[in-house]
Recover the amino acids of this structure.
């Protein structure tokens, strides 16, 4: 059972059947999955969704799978955490964190998109799946492919840290390091996808893959009692997550599941060392000038963001804004989140927190409204992003301990 | 100068299925001119009405995105590889 009508070009509106395809044959623009929204509106209710298991398949009518999903059955439905202590630090009255740092199975929001991609690869009976990745996507494709029994080919930039390579190889994936940066790897992937009968999740499976990101928007709204928040801050690499959260909220409105029309302002966050979308928003333009990334936020280091043009447009049309953070600010953001809310995020989450701070200070975000900040990955993946003091070493004697914590109140 | 142009699948309908086409040209603009002469209609797939590269087309000269070089005026060397690659999405 599926409500998918097919694929439609975002630019020229040319329609295609729901098949393996990277982009429009005429203008090369990305393809969007199109659904029979009136039919969904007639059948899908809030109560029905609420009665389903706590995973992202509770929104199945608005997702692009044809048959029952086989992998990713526990993905999605991450906590929306009320964050009063961080809110106080940032000057926000009603702050929530959408915490995909605890996403199943690989601790980043990429589990949402790979849930779509790997199930579609099984539907299309592909021999293998693959991707270009600097970390999170590689982990997630490798894990979900292993669970599906599909071989995975993962292309990474040569400079990637050993720990990230291990976290992908452990699933039995074939990891191939490429000389160059992420954009070079991505380009090679596009060329490989033309020659081999494999599903590259961010190339020929992309229209389906990207739909998984909508579930972050669906969940935020449902967890807020079927309300879209006043503001959402989203970290941006290629710009697809922000674009899909926008699509997700508007789809909920279209099928009649929201209490009120969507007026959410979208805010984009990037690292200063890779900020082509922020740069476009600042110029009040949708033309993206590619950059060569140089930032500790490697999970956001796409210098040539394919959805940047759309993300920039959605931000500006929503009345939102975008800003960037230096590496020092990113590290401080990671620490602030950990110390105020007990959530350890990777660099992309540090970018979100640091940029939220700037957006509040700059008067861009309504302090009294409901703000949701998207935390897209887990800090255990990027332990080198913060430098902390080496712990004190003492003898196993109570006097030594008391000396070290001197000044701290004694327990009576 | 003889250059090697790598044609992506969606454009091979213009090239009779050829993956690689040799042309004589000095700049990216000339490459597109020569391709259009050989395969009428291909220009419209690569460039918009104003003659600029389409938003979702990336062109690389010996692996470097021409937007980091001089766009359509980017010069190639004898034997250079010109790759036309549809822009694709993120990941990371």
């Amino acid at each position: 059972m599926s409500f998918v009508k097919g694929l439609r070009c975002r630019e020229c509106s040319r329609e295609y059947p729901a098949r393996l395809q990277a982009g429009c044959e005429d203008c090369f623009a990305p393809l969007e999955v199109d659904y029979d929204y009136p039919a969904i509106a007639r059948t899908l209710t809030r109560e029905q969704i609420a009665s389903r298991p706590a995973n992202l398949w509770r929104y199945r009518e608005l997702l692009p799978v044809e048959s029952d999903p086989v992998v990713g059955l526990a993905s999605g439905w991450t906590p929306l955490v009320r964050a009063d202590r961080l809110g106080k630090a940032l000057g926000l009255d009603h702050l929530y964190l959408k915490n995909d740092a605890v996403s199943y199975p690989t601790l980043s929001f990429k589990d949402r998109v790979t849930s779509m991609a790997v199930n579609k690869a099984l539907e299309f009976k592909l021999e293998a799946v693959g991707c270009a990745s600097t970390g999170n996507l590689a982990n997630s494709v490798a894990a979900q492919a292993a669970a599906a029994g599909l071989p995975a080919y993962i292309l990474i930039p040569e400079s990637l840290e050993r720990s990230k390579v291990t976290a992908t190889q452990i699933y039995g994936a074939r990891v191939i390091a490429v000389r160059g940066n992420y954009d070079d790897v991505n380009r090679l992937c596009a060329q490989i996808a033309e020659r081999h009968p494999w599903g590259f999740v961010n190339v020929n499976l992309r229209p389906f893959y990207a739909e998984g990101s909508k579930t972050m928007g669906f969940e935020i709204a449902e967890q807020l009692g079927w309300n879209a928040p006043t503001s959402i801050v989203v970290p941006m690499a290629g710009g697809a997550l922000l674009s899909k959260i926008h699509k997700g909220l508007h789809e909920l409105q279209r099928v009649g599941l929201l209490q009120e029309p969507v007026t959410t302002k979208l805010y984009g966050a990037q690292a200063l060392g890779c900020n082509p979308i922020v740069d476009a928003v600042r110029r009040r333009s949708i033309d993206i000038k590619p950059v060569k990334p140089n930032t500790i936020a490697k999970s956001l280091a796409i210098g040539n963001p394919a959805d940047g043009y759309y993300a920039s447009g959605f931000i500006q049309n929503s009345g939102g804004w975008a800003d960037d953070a230096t590496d020092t600010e990113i590290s401080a953001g990671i620490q602030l989140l950990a110390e105020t809310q007990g959530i350890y995020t990777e660099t992309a989450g540090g970018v979100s927190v640091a940029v939220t701070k700037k957006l509040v200070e700059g008067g861009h975000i309504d302090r009294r409204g409901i703000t949701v900040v998207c935390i897209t990955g887990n800090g255990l993946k990027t332990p080198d992003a913060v430098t902390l003091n080496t712990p004190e070493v003492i003898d196993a004697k109570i006097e030594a301990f008391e000396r070290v914590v001197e000044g701290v109140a004694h327990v009576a | 100068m003889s250059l090697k142009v790598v044609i992506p699948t969606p454009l091979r309908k213009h090239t009779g299925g050829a993956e690689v086409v040799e042309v004589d040209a000095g700049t990216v603009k000339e490459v597109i001119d020569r391709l259009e002469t050989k395969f009428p209609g291909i220009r419209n797939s690569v460039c918009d009405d104003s003659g600029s590269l389409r938003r979702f087309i990336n062109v690389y000269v010996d692996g470097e995105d021409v937007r980091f070089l001089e766009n359509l005026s980017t010069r190639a060397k004898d034997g250079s590889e010109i790759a036309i690659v549809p822009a694709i999405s993120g990941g990371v």
User: Anything to note?
Assistant: Residues 9 and 19 of chain B are 8 Å apart (CA to CA). The mean pLDDT of chain B is 90. DSSP finds two helices and five strands in chain B.
